[in-house]
Model the fold of this input.
Amino acid sequence: MTINCKGELIDLTVPKVMGILNLTPDSFFDGGTYKDESSILNQVDYMLNHGATFIDMGAYSSRPGAEHVNEDEELKRMLPVIELILKKFPDTLISVDTFRSKVASESLERGAAIINDISAGNLDEEMFKTVAQHQVPYIMMHLKGTPQSMQKEATYTDLIKDLRHYFSEKVQEATSQKINDIIIDPGFGFAKTTEQNYTLLNHLDLFKTFDLPLLIGLSRKSMIYKVLDSNPKEALNGTTSLHTIALLKGANILRAHDVKEAMECVKLVSALKANAL
Done:
């Protein structure tokens, strides 16, 4: 449960928080919020000061039905911000949310520390080779189809068995290509109905058999606000509730918009486990 980020060993036996920084104009919660240097640096400063171990940056919106963005535009959004953040906060461990190997490679060359791939290499056959060459931690998520088609792909013979089979094959492929630090993300909200998302959360502990760190992305998603008949802006309390459940079921990293509140979940669950009989 230890990963190597730019020579720094990060122990994930104590769960960590990954703060979300969307560089897209159309992300479902905070799209277009961080579009100038001041707002970007202020948000990164806030997240780091409230306990974020990683900052996850995305320049391609993967929300259901999001508009496709070409590679040049993704690079144009991503690379200057990596340089900006590392100039101001040089020790920041940046995770780059991309499924494109070129974006991954150029981001790592500018100082990013982790690649977070929603497709686990399925949308770019060069991704595994790129990650292996750079020897960085790799987050592989479960996704069927593409962000544009995934909502039509939520059919499974057996959800949990199908996902476990998917990860067994992907982990084997990644390790065979000499990727050493692998993190699993079951992909809440990606090619899954609301009911399937809760089935997945209920059986999250079954993914610990891979003996790999488990990243959870639940923050303000529709599986929360649809049940509560609200919207993403009103989904913080629901997010906190599900973060707590995920931690109790073995999550190692919470990918969250609200770092302070996610860290409170980590501290409280850690206190509970420390005092368990």
Q: What stands out?
A: The chain has a mean pLDDT of 93. The domain at 2-269 is CATH 3.20.20.20 (TIM Barrel). The chain has nine helices and ten strands.
